[in-house]
Specification:
With 146 residues, the protein is mainly α. It contains five helices and two strands, in the order H-H-H-E-E-H-H. Strand 1 and strand 2 form a beta hairpin. Helix 2 packs antiparallel against helix 5 and helix 4 runs antiparallel to helix 5. The longest helix has 33 residues. The two termini are 21 Å apart. 25% of the residues are buried.
């Protein structure tokens, strides 16, 4: 019973939209990782390209998680994420990358290896965003001693 109280208290000071965003990222990441593992086990994807894509995506996700500037909202007593001008610039660059990554990577990698890398980058980006956002939330709550 105490674990439920602890679990509830961990999320009570976080904006529900932020929690839902992180849940969606985790769901997409999990689905993509299942597809990647399935294709690697069937021999269609190279393990090297899949893992390198995940690590590249992890780095991109950590950078892109800065899109939302995490802060404390006094009115709602929640950690919220807002887009500031730095976040807007990062978001525009990220969107350009999202729509051109297949063409950019297509110069060096083709076929199934390209698909494995694209899926890996997407899954890694989601993981990086979740980890970095979680770290930011903990930092805000620690500063406020909550």
């Amino acid at each position: 019973m105490k674990k439920r109280k602890e679990s509830y208290s961990k999320t009570q000071n976080i904006d529900i939209r932020l929690i839902n965003r992180l849940r969606i990222y985790l769901l997409v990441m999990f689905i993509l990782l299942v597809v990647i593992v399935f294709e690697v086990l069937n021999g269609r994807f190279s393990t090297l390209f899949s893992i390198s894509g995940i690590f590249m995506g992890l780095l991109i996700g950590i950078i892109v998680s800065r899109v939302y500037n995490l802060s404390w909202d006094e009115e709602t007593n929640n950690v919220i994420g807002k887009i500031d001008w730095i976040g807007a610039v990062i978001l525009v660059c990220y969107l350009i990358f999202i729509f051109t990554k297949t063409q950019l990577l297509g110069y060096w990698v083709q076929g199934n290896s390209l698909f494995a890398m694209v899926l890996g980058i997407t899954a890694g980006t989601m993981l990086g965003r979740v980890l970095s956002t979680e770290r930011g939330i903990k930092k805000v709550l620690k500063v406020l001693e909550i």
